[in-house]
């Protein structure tokens, strides 16, 4: 049986795009120390096998971990869960996408649904298995949160990230965005602070830019990509002057 992966590491994997190189390396090594195979790790984080192997070259597995990997990799384990995981997941994704197609077609005249899809199409994250939107306008982010809760998951959990300039008041910015997004209990990831530059730009945003990310978004990403295709096929391409 594949080792249990703690929720904090799963959450960290969901922040992959925001992690520095060394943070990605530490995450890869932490997953390897649990006794995961490289293939199992790559199901969680999008890293080339060669890079992962380099990161984990000094990680030493226990005898029990090595034996467990051997059992999960043996021909006789094909009837068990570890080997079945991928084809089961592919089947689940196919069902999710089929349901998403039907859902979008039945909601194509729902203005809020289509507006949210169009907003995500233009502004949302395009990284695989990620569902997030970044903006400087709190109203846009509130609309995104409401859209997610209306059409994806009423109980969705969110994580916030800030992009600030040097000199911004980070505690004040966090307080501002929690209040403005209506997510007072959502945690923040590490803030990116852009260093002071040449000084040509004077109109720095007082509270910076905020990203709202939905937790555990793999299924959501698959739904949204289908919804975008349905909206695109219904309303686009639009030709000016046509």
Number of beta-strand segments: 4
Strand-pairing-aware structural class: alpha+beta
Strand content is: 5-15%
- What is the alpha-carbon Rg in Å? 21 Å
3D structure, described in words:
It is a single chain. With 242 residues, the protein is an alpha+beta fold. The chain has helices spanning 7-14, 21-33, 38-42, 49-55, 63-73, 81-106, 111-123, 138-151, 170-181, 218-235, and strands spanning 132-135, 158-165, 192-194, 209-214. It has 10 helices and 4 strands; from the N terminus they run αααααααβαβαββα. Helix 6 packs parallel to helix 10 (218-235), helix 7 crosses helix 8 and helix 7 (111-123) crosses helix 10 (218-235). The chain has a 4-stranded mixed beta sheet with strand order 1-4-2-3, covered by helices on one side. The protein has 2 domains: 7-73, no CATH class; 90-235, no CATH class.
Question: What characteristics describe this protein?
Answer:
242 residues; 10 helices; four-stranded mixed sheet; 52% helix; alpha+beta; disordered C terminus; single chain; flat
